[in-house]
Design brief:
- The structure holds two protein chains of two kinds.
- Chain A is an all-alpha fold.
- Chain A is built from eight helices and no strands.
- Chain A folds into two domains: about 80 residues, 434 Repressor (Amino-terminal Domain); about 35 residues, no CATH class.
- The longest helix of chain A is centred in the last third of the chain and has 14 residues.
- In chain B, strand 2 and strand 3 form a beta hairpin.
- Chain B has a three-stranded mixed sheet, with helices on one face.
- Chain B starts with 14 loop residues before the first helix and ends in a 7-residue tail after the last helix.
- Chain B has a domain of about 70 residues.
- Chain B is built from five helices and three strands, in the order ααβαββαα.
- Helices cover about 45% and strands about 10% of the residues of chain B.
- By secondary structure, chain B is α+β, with helices and mostly antiparallel strands.
- The chains are: A mainly alpha, B alpha+beta.
Amino acid sequence: MVATTPPTMTIQHDNFAAFFQALRKDKRITLRAFCIQAGADPGNISRMERRALPPPQDREILARYAKALGLAEGSDNWYLFFDLAAADSGLIPQDIMNDEQLVKELPAFFRTLRGQKPTETELRTVIEKLRKA
Amino acid sequence: MAIDPQRFKAPYLENTQCWDAAEIFRHRYWPSGALPVDVLDIAEFDLGLKFKMVSGLIEDADVDALLLGDWQTLAVDQKLYLDAKYYNRLRFSIAHELGCHGTVKTSQVGSIHNQPL
């Protein structure tokens, strides 16, 4: 039985592999125990933790991994887990892409990231969308 | 702490030295004394060792587990690592490798690394 991380507790991370390892270490879930629980291949998990393999992109697989690591669905760490997996592969998280309205606002968001300021209206729209997402 | 395997010579240790080292190890890393000792847990989280899956390690090389030359990686057989029937043998093999790891770490034997081998 894996203890669930309190939603407020955020584990330090640089990338998905580091975050994954930190979660495992925090709960002392051995590689073997994790693989049995998550139905994962130990060779792939070992390579993924060494960043020799990118994280999976399949949402079902990631959800299985997140649950095996004791992450509570909907918690900050749950979303961070999926976001880091997407970011490591240069992708936008699937739940964002599923929201058509939010996708329309992404160009303004990217402009902001590049230091090109969006208009106040664009910014307010993005903030509102992100708040509701 | 890489060691040139060509120049490495295993030290001779008396049984009592090994037993004492095992006692110290258990007190330090498994103070509850509860059985079974989870050597995989100790290897990963107390000693910071990484597991590396190797295909055919047992079948081709007749090796159950191996502490690699970087002293930080434990190679195990990919096929049998998750096999429930093999689990106790795996634990035994990992415990053996932890003994090798501890041997290198102890000051007595660790000092050999400061001397010409």
